[in-house]
């Protein structure tokens, strides 16, 4: 059931309640926009990859369960797939600038903040959204740091593939950081 604390992300914070998943994802959007503005492609790659995994694991399944808006969720996931493909081009050093990623991310932010977040707030109660916020921290901490656009997008295999990809990404990052230290 929806709560009646309002749709503004500041309402919960102003009332002293813990932040919900919408507030945390909105804050993450602003942080990634700052990284895009700075043009730090490796930071963008890392942060956006984990952000997309978090939304895929937490936001989209919750909307499917409560909002009965599968077409909207499918469209969001399609947009995220295009974003992951563009991130892959950065990861493989096919492109040096982040302009295409910035454009796709702007569309992602528009879609999630104007359509998906209000829908989540209208259909999922505050207690559940706060629990999702707690889960979000763990997902962001353990998510892959590189894009994996061909991993499954839902269910058990998504979680397993993301966990395996995260381990591989950690090894890959450690190797590259070790190379740079020499």
Overview of the molecule:
- The protein has 7 helices and no strands.
- With 182 residues, the chain is mainly alpha-helical.
- It starts with 8 loop residues before the first helix and ends with a helix.
- The N terminus is likely disordered.
Summarize the entry for a quick read.
The protein is built from 7 helices and no strands.
List the helices and strands and how they pair.
Layout: H1 9-14, H2 21-38, H3 41-67, H4 70-91, H5 99-123, H6 126-142, H7 155-181
Tally of separate helices? 7
Gross geometry: globular
Quaternary status of these chains?
A: single chain
Q: Return the domain count.
A: 1
Give the C-alpha Rg.
17 Å
Summarize the biggest pleated sheet. none
**How much helix, percentage-wise, in residues?**
over 70%
Per DSSP E runs of 2 or more residues, the count of β-strands stands at 0
**What low-confidence regions span 5 or more consecutive residues with pLDDT below 50?**
1-10
Q: Termini separation (Å)?
A: 56 Å
- Chain-averaged pLDDT: 84
Estimate the strand proportion. Answer: under 5%
């Amino acid at each position: 059931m929806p709560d009646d604390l309002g749709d503004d992300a500041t309402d919960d914070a102003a009332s002293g309640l813990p932040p919900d998943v919408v507030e945390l994802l909105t804050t993450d959007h602003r942080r990634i926009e700052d990284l895009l503005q700075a043009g730090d492609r490796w930071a963008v790659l890392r942060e956006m990859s984990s952000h997309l995994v978090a939304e895929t694991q937490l936001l989209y399944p919750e909307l499917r369960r409560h909002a009965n808006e599968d077409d909207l969720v499918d469209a969001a996931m399609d947009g995220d797939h295009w974003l992951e493909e563009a991130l892959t081009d950065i990861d493989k050093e096919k492109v040096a600038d982040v302009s295409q990623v910035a454009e796709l991310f702007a569309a992602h932010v528009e879609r999630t903040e104007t359509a998906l977040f209000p829908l989540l707030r209208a259909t999922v109660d505050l207690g559940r959204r706060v629990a999702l916020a707690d889960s979000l921290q763990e997902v962001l901490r353990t998510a892959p740091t590189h894009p994996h656009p061909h991993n499954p997008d839902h269910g058990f295999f998504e979680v397993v593939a993301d966990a395996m990809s995260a381990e591989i990404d950690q090894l890959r990052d450690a190797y590259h950081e070790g190379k740079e230290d020499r």
